[in-house]
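--- STAGE predict ---
source: upstream dedup step, 1 unique chain passed
mode: sequence only
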Amino acid sequence: MSDETAGDSADWVTEHRYRAVLQVLDGVPKSQVARECGASRQSVHSWVIRYEAFGLPGLADRSRRPLTSPNELSPTVVAMVCELRRTYPRWGAQRIAHELVLRGVDAPPSRSSVYRILVRHGLITAQQQNHKRKYRRWQRDAPMQLWQIDIMGGVFLADGRECKLVTGIDDHARFVVMATVVAQPGARAVCAAFTGHGRLRRALRSVDRQREAVHGPVHQAVSG
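--- STAGE serialize ---
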């Protein structure tokens, strides 16, 4: 809604209430005025009181926002948070919140509240995260030592049946050594998919509950 549209709507509401108030002041019963304007009798009564106290501006919608927030921290607590941070620059939000509890602060702020105070006052500087890579790249020394096999769905036939795609990637060469469609991902079908693709030492499958059922027989077939 644009500002102009919102302003027109507010003016209409004020005028609507003003007409209701004039009817009451002319002697029309409040219950009758309420029925005609589609409001409760209590609302009409409050409009009359607001008009008598504040005039026409008193009939405008009033903000429902509370004057004070129940979670708003006192300036004293905010000052203590900032002072602790300046005195102990290595203290984080959690440590400062704990310190306020130890000092007996009434209604001490939470860690997240302390963090927002520090950010708002520019007392937290973003630090660059220098995480060292802890993973280790590994692969077999030669081809045909290890295949990484995977079974994927999503191959649909004309009759609506879903088939599975069995793939194998050589761990050393990164070459797709096999790619076969099977009707059911059972051990027999997967083992048959290896026929004609050479003999390897070991097969490594992706961890999946569905693939657990075929891994044991497949491993025995390709490495036995």
